[in-house]
Amino acid sequence: MDGASVSVRGLGKRYGAVRAVEGVDIEVRPGEFLSLLGPSGSGKTTLLMMIAGFEVPTEGSIRIGDRDVTYVAPNWRNIGMVFQRYALFPHMTVADNVAFPLRMRKVAKAEIARRVADALALVQLQDCGKRLPSELSGGQQQRVAVARALVFEPPVLLMDEPLGALDKKLREQMQIEIKRLQQRLGVTVIYVTHDQEEALTMSDRIAVMRNGSLEQIGSPTELYDSPATPFVADFVGKTNFLEAVCHSCNGTGLEFGLGQSGFIYLKECPPALATPPEPGEKMRLAVRPEAIRMVPPGDSDNRPLNGVVEAVIFVGSFRTYLVRLTGGELLHVQASTDHGMSPPREGDRVGLNIPSQAVQIFRKRRQ
Ligand SMILES: Nc1ncnc2c1ncn2[C@@H]1O[C@H](COP(=O)(O)OP(=O)(O)OP(=O)(O)O)[C@@H](O)[C@H]1O
Ligand SMILES: [Mg+2]
């Protein structure tokens, strides 16, 4: 099975006054795993339903391969689909569920039996064909749904929060299984999730949705390291925001004032900013918790920010410190401490070093 490209241009959907999706352009490459990531109500399902053909767009077009399918009925698009729940027909056996798309396509009986067996083997459920869905675990049921979606060898597979009903451990296991299967088959996958970890784990690229529009599209590392907007910085991974005023911007770097909390120095202006900040301009800075280094307080050589540890949170293999800066801002710091410095405890004063390259700068008016 070869994956097909999916091209979405200027796609929009209105329900009365509600703009569920607006002006979305996405080019999905053949065999790519693309996730649609966004908060509840951001238009992910509506976008997926238009690609599947269950919703008619108000504007724009959809192509699969070199074929315009904007107004083609769902069963003529040759797309596999896995929904979040209620996916299987409860009164049919597992084998009959998987056979369903082939029966609809009037495939010969012997051929159906062979392909159902293959599809069940693909998701490692070869011995479960005679059972009813209610006799399977949640994870097994979703694997049957995946087998049913893949049995007719579609070039495109759409999945809408397929693991949403599963517990965390099973979800993580299924993420790996689905990803492996997709790579083995070469099928193009468009995968809806509001779980950023899931999107980061599975995707070649992630399209971040917000209020029906595409906020940014890029690889997991691009989104994580170079978020285009504060929304993306906040939604993909954890981040700290700091309100700052640009004090100076010249050949030797940029200085930002954080009021009573101190200063942050950057060696150079991030290339993502079209024009450098002007002195006096209010900006929003974003810093990842793991980019901050903890140092002894008041070390004037390093000019750190100073603060007090308000809480220490154990998260398995690392610790997160909540540090209150002198000016009142609360920062999440996921730090290894400086060599020779013992891990701080609640109430301790600490210094924070923020490396230049770890700071994202956003213009206030562009939020
Ligand atoms: N049939 C409908 N009629 C009216 N409004 C709708 C309809 N379907 C969706 N909407 C609205 O369109 C917007 C986008 O909905 P959509 O279901 O696409 O979001 P979503 O990103 O999938 O959210 P979730 O993560 O909660 O599933 C929402 O504001 C929703 O209320
Ligand atoms: Mg949805």
TrEMBL record:
Its EC number is 7.6.2.11. Residues 6-236 form the ABC transporter domain. GO terms for molecular function: ATP binding. The keyword Nucleotide-binding applies. InterPro entries: AAA+_ATPase, ABC_SmlMolc_Importer, ABC_transporter-like_ATP-bd, ABC_transporter-like_CS, Mo/tungstate-bd_C_term_dom, P-loop_NTPase, PotA-like, Transp-assoc_OB_typ2. It catalyses: ATP + H2O + polyamine-[polyamine-binding protein]Side 1 = ADP + phosphate + polyamineSide 2 + [polyamine-binding protein]Side 1. It is an enzyme of class 7 (translocase). It comes from the Bacteria. SUPFAM superfamilies: MOP-like, P-loop containing nucleoside triphosphate hydrolases. Keywords: ATP-binding, Cell membrane, Membrane, Nucleotide-binding, Translocase, Transport. Part of the ABC transporter complex PotABCD involved in spermidine/putrescine import. Responsible for energy coupling to the transport system. PANTHER family: SPERMIDINE/PUTRESCINE IMPORT ATP-BINDING PROTEIN POTA (PTHR42781), SPERMIDINE_PUTRESCINE IMPORT ATP-BINDING PROTEIN POTA (PTHR42781:SF4). Belongs to the ABC transporter superfamily. Spermidine/putrescine importer (TC 3.A.1.11.1) family. The complex is composed of two ATP-binding proteins (PotA), two transmembrane proteins (PotB and PotC) and a solute-binding protein (PotD). This is Spermidine/putrescine import ATP-binding protein PotA. It comes from Mesorhizobium argentiipisi. The gene is potA.
